[in-house]
Design goal:
By secondary structure, the protein is α+β, with helices and mostly antiparallel strands. The chain contains seven helices and seven strands, in the order ββαββααααβββαα.
Length: 245
């Protein structure tokens, strides 16, 4: 007798029975049931092996990308696993992360520490996936910007991936500085243009002012002072030379 063992939609094996005479029906049924059970077990093992290979492959890809894969207790922030990428990225041995319970918090940048911890406590208490960016201090004193993507797991732990985004943050900062410089240059150019226009108008006004009568001249000069402040200056004084000096 031969019973096929199906796993994953294909025949994975064959259970064979050699006997000098046909077996009892109950034995044939038992063998058929055993073949079905074996098929289900093979399928489950293959699926688990596939998931394991996928997980290892994904972890290797993440580590080659310069990231840190980790898992931790959400209440104590005690790390129970940290990938080898942690040492390459920040310079601290992996054992420091798992054996020193306060390691991660102490090595957060002082200016980010309170904000990051409060955010994590709130998100973990609600069991929600979350992500944020913060700075950590590396073993050689460098400041490394981290993007931390975190999610809850069914066993109560949280898992995450830390990615080095220092270069991206630096590029963003450079772009921001260039934008501010461009805006400042544009503002200076616009101010210079307005100033030139006001000076041209004031020059024309002064040139024609002395053709007016005394009362009109005083009004014109007063108007000129109002034009200068605050367009060109905070204060304006007009000195008029009289015949007596």
């Amino acid at each position: 007798l031969a019973f096929p063992v199906h796993a994953g939609g294909a025949v994975a094996a064959v259970v064979e029975l050699f006997a000098p005479e046909p077996p009892e029906p109950w034995l044939a049924d038992a063998l058929e049931e055993a073949a079905g059970h074996l098929g289900r077990r093979l399928e489950r093992e293959r699926r688990e092996e596939g998931l394991r290979r996928d997980g290892v492959h994904a972890r290797q890809l993440v580590e080659r990308a310069g990231a840190i894969v980790w898992e931790a207790d959400p209440e104590s922030f005690r790390f129970t696993f940290v990938s080898a990428g942690a040492e390459r990225l920040l310079g601290y041995p992996v054992e420091r992360w798992t054996e020193d319970h306060g390691f991660w918090i102490r090595h957060l940048h002082p200016e980010d520490r309170e904000r990051v911890v409060d955010f994590c406590v709130d998100a973990c208490s609600r069991g929600e996936p979350h992500e944020q960016e913060y700075r950590m201090v590396a073993a050689d004193g460098r400041v490394v910007w981290i993007r931390d993507i975190v999610g809850p797991r069914q066993d109560g732990k949280v898992v995450g991936v830390m990615v080095d985004v220092t270069e991206r943050r630096a590029a963003d900062r450079d772009r921001e500085h260039l934008l501010l410089a461009e805006q400042s240059a544009r503002a200076r150019a616009e101010h210079a243009e307005r100033r030139s226009a006001v000076l041209a108008y004031a020059s024309e006004l002064l040139h024609s002012a002395f053709e007016y009568a005394r009362e009109e001249l005083d009004a014109t000069l007063s108007g000129l002072a109002s034009l200068a402040v605050p367009t060109l200056a905070d204060y304006c004084r007009i000195d008029e030379g009289r015949e007596e000096g």
